[in-house]
Design a protein that fits this description.
- The protein is mainly beta.
- It is built from one helix and eight strands; from the N terminus they run αββββββββ.
- 6% of the residues lie in helices and 37% in strands.
- The strands form two sheets. Strands 6-5-4-7-8 form a five-stranded antiparallel beta sheet.
């Protein structure tokens, strides 16, 4: 289990509740239709507070990554990727790519990925991504 876990706030609680339920939740601005991440109380494009939550597809593509060859002690001893995924709905999010060799040959930019949730405790399940099948 990882030591440094996020603490849900009123603005992020819906996101973390979705992750615990196996659902990647994003926000959409009602006036301008902008979809964004990370969660916040207002639209970063038009500043409207009229926002709605919705279940995202959980699908995306690998935008960028680095391989951490010297992880913190609480992250284990094996190299792991620190990645940015572009979600099919538009926003990008920082994550890790799992269930895949942590090599430049396996972590191909633009490869299709899908979300998986790693339960940490009663409140937090982390959204991680793995290569999409097919």
């Amino acid at each position: 289990m990882r030591e440094a876990l996020p603490t849900p706030t009123p603005e992020t609680r819906h996101f973390w509740e979705g992750c615990r339920a196996g659902e990647l939740r994003l926000q959409r601005c009602k006036p301008c239709a902008h979809v964004y991440f990370p969660p916040r109380a207002f639209c970063p494009r038009c500043s409207s507070r009229e926002v709605a939550f919705f279940a995202a597809s959980g699908q995306g593509s690998l935008y960028s990554y680095v391989i951490n060859y010297r992880p913190r002690a609480d992250m284990g001893s094996e190299p792991h990727s620190i990645a940015v995924v572009t979600l099919d709905e538009g926003p990008r999010m920082m994550t890790n790519i799992i269930n895949c060799p942590q090599t430049a040959e396996a972590l191909v930019l633009d490869m299709r990925v899908r979300v998986v949730f790693e339960v940490q405790n009663d409140e937090i399940a982390l959204p991680l991504f793995e290569p999409a099948q097919g």
